[in-house]
Specification:
Tetracycline Repressor, domain 2; about 65% helix; mainly alpha
Length: about 230
């Protein structure tokens, strides 16, 4: 045994602790960014305001963990979608037809009894998520608006922010068509019909804080059912 070997566990523990602290700090910055964007909008969100909201001693802490504002916005988008995905996964215990946007890699999930049931469960679950995570969805909407208004802005997220969600919805719609459950239609158009009212919900809640969320979800699910069903399907 060499003289250095007894110190290896200490170095490993130090590295683990450092990684944990770094991840905790990144999470703190992301949450502060979400709250700042939700309140002030993307354009008015600066490192200084994020540091103030997050109780950070210096904006250099943000620069240390994120290469630039675009990198931070991508982290926010990923964090919000990961949160939605986890929420959907947990909702399977309430509604077995619910499925996450990104399925877990450690186990396969059975397909719901019908594509229609999965779409309805998705709509209901996301509306519930919005009701308890308004700041997160408001921040996401503000980032999307910035990308739409100025797609060449280096501070805005450059990746397709809706790609994963739209691919998931299109997949469910195409499966329903393949089994004969749904009529023939353009899945991209109908996926947009599902997703856009969900993305607009945080903004609607600002002017209608007393909005009946369960009614909103039920009406949207019914509208999509009417738009997709085969003639004669009850």
């Amino acid at each position: 045994m060499t003289a250095t070997e007894p110190h290896e566990p200490d170095r490993a523990a130090t590295a683990t602790g450092s990684t944990s602290r770094g991840e905790s700090r990144q999470k703190q910055i992301i949450e502060a960014t979400i709250e700042t964007i939700s309140e002030l909008g993307f354009a008015r969100t600066t490192y200084t305001r994020i540091a103030e909201r997050g109780g950070l001693s210096s904006t250099r802490l943000i620069s240390y963990h994120f290469a630039d504002k675009a990198d931070l916005m991508q982290a926010v988008i990923s964090d919000v979608y990961a949160s939605i995905n986890e929420f959907l996964l947990e909702r399977m215990a309430i509604d077995p037809a619910t499925r996450p946007i990104q399925p877990p890699t450690d186990r396969p999930l059975p397909q719901p009894e019908s594509a229609a049931a999965e779409l309805s469960a998705y709509i209901t679950a996301v509306v519930d998520y919005v009701g308890t995570h308004q700041a997160r969805l408001s921040a996401l909407r503000s980032i999307f608006a910035a990308v739409h208004d100025d797609p060449d802005n280096p501070e805005a997220a450059q990746a397709d922010p809706r790609g994963g969600v739209m691919s998931y919805l299109i997949g469910v719609l195409e499966r329903g068509q393949a089994t004969g459950e749904f009529r023939r239609f353009d899945p991209l158009v109908v996926a947009g019909m599902i997703q856009r009212p969900l993305e607009a919900l945080p903004l609607l809640l600002r002017s209608r804080p007393d909005l009946d969320m369960a009614h909103y979800a039920a009406e949207l699910a019914t509208a999509i059912d009417c738009a997709t069903r085969q003639d004669g399907r009850q």
